[in-house]
Amino acid sequence: MKLGPEDAFTLPKKMREKSDLRDRTLISLEETPEGTLMRSFVPFPMELYSEERIKEFEIENNESISELLASTSDPRSDQLPLHLLGVLSK
User: Fold this and answer.
1) Whole domain around residue 18: which residue ranges?
2) What angle do CA 4, 40, 18 make, to 5 degrees?
3) Is residue 45 included in any domain, yes or no?
4) What is the pTM of this model?
5) Strand residues in the chain grouped as ranges (E)
6) Is residue 19 part of a domain?
7) Rounded to whole angstroms, how far apart are CA atoms 38 and 19?
8) Is the dihedral of CA 24, 37, 29, 43 positive or negative?
């Protein structure tokens, strides 16, 4: 392989087929002790939360738990989702 205009390079067809790389596949290059590692990847959107937004989530979660507890006669009943049992024991 060699670099072309604008630092572009073309992978050999056999390598593209073996790795199932298609037109416009996103690829990351990572430096490793053994050399450069090339991987295809799929980006996903990510939201960074401000302290205010985190507090909003906590308020909403607490309200949901309170509503659930108010609607359940026995907070340890089978109707209560297991992930909330840890919240109740605190």
Assistant:
1) 5-40
2) 85
3) no
4) 0.40
5) 27-32, 35-40
6) yes
7) 11
8) positive
Token code pair at residue 17: 């087929």
Please check whether residue 13 lies inside any domain of the structure.
yes
Q: Residue 36 contacts by C-beta under 8 Å, 6 or more apart in sequence?
A: 29, 30
- Cα distance between residue 16 and residue 26, in whole Å: 13
Q: CA 58 → CA 2, 7, 65, distances in Å?
A: 53, 48, 11
Residues 6+ apart with CB under 8 A from 13: none
Same domain, 59 and 80: yes
Domain check: are 11 and 36 in the same one?
Answer: yes
Average pLDDT over residues 75-86: 56
| Pairwise pLDDT comparison (17 vs 1), residue with the higher score | 17
- Spatial contact of 9 and 2, defined as CB atoms under 8 Å apart: yes
Q: Which residue has the tokens 């308020």?
A: 59
Provide φ and ψ at 15, rounded to 5°. -70, -40
